[in-house]
Amino acid sequence: MTRLPARDDARPTAGYRPPPAGVLRETGRALRARRRELGRLAGWSAAESVPALLSGLLVARAVDQGFLAGRFGTGLVWLGVLALAMLVGAAATGGVYRALGAVVEPFRDELADRVVRSALRAATTGGTGSESAAVARLTQQVEVVRDAFGGLLMVVRGFLFAAVSALIGLVALAPLVAALVAVPLLAGLVVFVAGLPAMVAHQRRYVRAGEALGEAAATALAGHRDVLACGAQDRVVAGVAARITTLADAERTVARMTALRSLSLGLGGWAPLAVLILAASWLVSRGVTAGAVLGALVYVSTGLQPALRALVQGVGGGGLRYVVALERILHTSPPGPAGSVPVQHGDPTRNGVSTVGPGSAGGRRRAGPDDVPGLPGPDGTPALHVHRLTFRYGPRARPVLADFSLTLAPGEHLAVVGPSGAGKSTLAALASGLVRPGAGSVSIAGTPVDSVDADRLARLRVLVPQEAYVFSGSLAANLRYLRPDADDALLATALDALGARPLADRLGGLDAPVAPTALSAGERQVIAAVRAWLAPAPLAILDEATCHLDPAAETLVEEAFARRPGTLVVVAHRITSALRADRVLVLDGERPVLGDHRELLARSATYRELVGYWDDRPASSPPAGAPARTGPA
Predict the structure, then answer these.
(1) Cα angle value 384/385/386 (rounded, 5°)
(2) Pairing verdict, β 439-444 and 384-391
(3) pLDDT tens-digit series, residues 249-301
(4) Residue 350 DSSP label
(5) Distance of alpha carbon 160 from alpha carbon 311, whole angstroms
């Protein structure tokens, strides 16, 4: 039965829970790791703040020494100097953004790497695959952190440089004016900083309420048949509605917090202007010139006020999102020790070929042609032995395979066929040791896959999945990924054997760079197939690895693998794959049937239907009195 949505627990706890030390620590680590880039950012920011430093002072000089003194030309000269300062600041802005990217983008890449590794680790240790919705939410939060981090750097460094420059200019104009401006400015900052804890708490509640609503809605939609069958519509609707109400309340609270930002902006940005205007006559009576008063207004209106507005809006908006999103990433994607992913659950498939464990990592030792362990010998050790295997995707799910057994002799060629969803790819994953069965065992060349380390397992089998992966680099680097000691002559032999020579020539040869996005799905499959053909593993498993190729190209690839020393398992995309195999395994959700093409036409109704569908013509009926189907041995 589908789990019903639980009651809402996204309400804020009493009191403010400060951002975890991990957020501050991670931010500090990211900044310390890029001291040089931050230094360049500070340098460009200093150049950009030249107008903020000189604007009020130059305006005061233009008024006092030029226009009010009757020297119009002198006033224009001072304004011309101000124009040059603005040009310097504008030119420095481009450097600011370049330096900002050098700080922000590596941090974003580190977080994305952390999220992906954590998702893969969770999938491999859990045995049930990754939760795509959760991963999507986390990757979206990585982009939120990236944008907010860049925005925070911009507004904080902008405020610091603009405020310091303006205050220095005000002190140079008249210390008394600087004091009148600094008091309300500091008051506005104090109000804003004091309100940040509450803002973070309410933003956190808003994010969690949104996640809770998404999970509740997804659960209800996924189990709608169970809900209807049990008559639980009202309860499920009430549960989802409660989360909608919680999210709306949280959003309204976040919106109300903008009043606090407006108060701090009014105190720190507008109050200094009002003070200067109201105190203008008093300042003049104290010896402050009219130009100095006007220059002070310029400093406040064009420097301090815009910088404070950007700080309040940036920190109050993007800063809160940054803290909450980074907190979620650090909480849900903890770092794990290298090599912590168990072999039996599988490592991520790289380059179109599953290469599990340290033996597949770049720069580490891989098996060569003379050091493949467990090669079937003359003693009759099976190349692949699956014994009483049972697997299901959930504790209450119907088994995909139940008490399933299969034995393949060395050098045998097996094709696996069946309708979509019958478990063909699941069997491929189980046979290659990427997924742990609920019961039973799998041995390759006499070696149980759950008792060997990742390096040895990678030498025993190679898996080519349907969605081939090609990495950026040269064609030769892609092909040598599983066979780093292969020379150019061996690569050429492989290209010719699998009909990939025209593709290599079109790309520009072995040393030509490969752009994965510029390749078609079929071209990526060809490169992945050549790479797997070169691998020294004695067992090759092709999981619909040629589905994007035309029949002629598919034939070349499969025949090349059939001639390759070792055992071949092909999850068939076309019936011709079954015709080329020594034996065919039919999976149809009931008891599997094993035999050759002619036997299966007589014994398996599913196989006859598949042959008729793939051939686009009715299959011949089985002979009368055909024996009933039996499972594999």
Answers:
(1) 120
(2) antiparallel
(3) 988 888 887 777 788 888 888 888 888 889 888 888 888 888 888 888 888 88
(4) B
(5) 9
